[in-house]
Predict the structure.
Amino acid sequence: MQWLEITLTVDGEAAEAVADVLTRFAPQGVAMEATRLETSLDSDETRAVGDVLVRAYLPVDAALDVRRAELEQALWHMGQLLPLPAPTFRPVADTDWAQAWKSNFRPLRLGRRLMIVPAWLEPALEPGVAAIRLDPGMAFGTGTHPTTQLCLLAIERHLAPGAPMLDLGTGSGILAIAAARLGSGPVLALDVDPEAVRVAGENVIANGVAGQVRVVAGSLAEVLAGQYGPEWRGAPLVVANILARMIITLLEVGLAQIVAPGGLLVVSGILDTQAFEVTAALKIAGLTIVAQEQIDDWVALIARK
């Protein structure tokens, strides 16, 4: 089968919005990649800087012309609100499709104890460094996006040894795997997207943490209903790397209820211009802000119950 690759290189503020638009038309999802990585001079920590490459693939079939026209129209309307470059298009074959995004995916050191490693590479690891082997597939993040990095760093700092963690909106499973690698107790990883559940499950198995990490299709409603066990209605650490508007919606319907008294909620996927609104929602839900951390235009908020 042939695919049409659509690519836009945009700043951090536009990346999530563009990804949302592309998701409507791309049945296999959307990938976001850093265009540049920077290593701190006083540590081994690497982070994404600068623009973000957003990429999606359309199947070349009878509906392609209509789908492409609708996509271009949607991007044009978005371009009236914020500046966007013209998308670039190129055909790729099935054999190229799965490899197209891999060229820029290389080992990424984060914090003191984490390294994200492409599943097809075998880099040397320093003693005490936990490797997260990831083959995210075209639709899911590789850890280079600031929102993922903020969550990984928060998990490294705040996860207590042997403590459970709930990962709401797991995507590739990277946060859940990181928690297990860092010595967590059981981890419940949830996503509403069946493809995300499949990919995350494969990554969990590939990292040898299937006995620790449970990946299931579901969201907050099922947790509140006790579907996964009553213990998950009071997790000591809950992480949600999703969009700001979804965080606010989930807080309105009971997100704070699944955090144990004294426990922490880490939320990311928030632009700095949205942080005030999310902070207000956290406080209304009865949580106390512990920290606000930022990389480029992206913010993570850490709140205690």
